[in-house]
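I am still getting used to backbone structure tokens and would like to learn alongside you. Label the sequence line and the structure token line clearly, so we can match residues to local backbone shapes. Go ahead whenever you are ready, and we will take it from there:
>
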Amino acid sequence: MIIILMGVSGSGKTTIGERLAQVLGWPFYDGDQFHPPANIVKMQQGMPLTDADRWPWLHALRACIETWVQQGMSAVLACSALKQAYREYLIIDEDEVKLVYLRGDYDLINERLAQRQGHFMPPGLLASQFAALEEPERGVVVDIVHPPERMVALIREQLRV
């Protein structure tokens, strides 16, 4: 099983993903590591990514997901996957690839981003992420108001892992 944790920047994808992967004994992958260098530079400069910017990144993610599924590997992947078209592209098999949406409101996430250090994504881009976000109609939804341990437990309960 591949679990994709999606949501806007600051929703806790990496924190929850690392904890979930550790509990499950699976590898964790941060989708940010798959961005082309030009995307990182653009975001560092406070410029939101366009669909054209995101597709090479999505192609790289899909190639990894395809390999993991073919190898029968389980993994946790943190990936914003803000639009339905992105998720449809990444979820190559609904039996093997599961979506978990880390949902939170703008004010809470903005507060978290203001405290975050050492990340290339500036808090000023949060509004563009919310503007691009198309909330998923399927998959597991976990509200980020819960402590991380509870969020991991909720994900495990709903996915039965």
Remarks:
- Residues 56 and 91 are 16 Å apart (CA to CA).
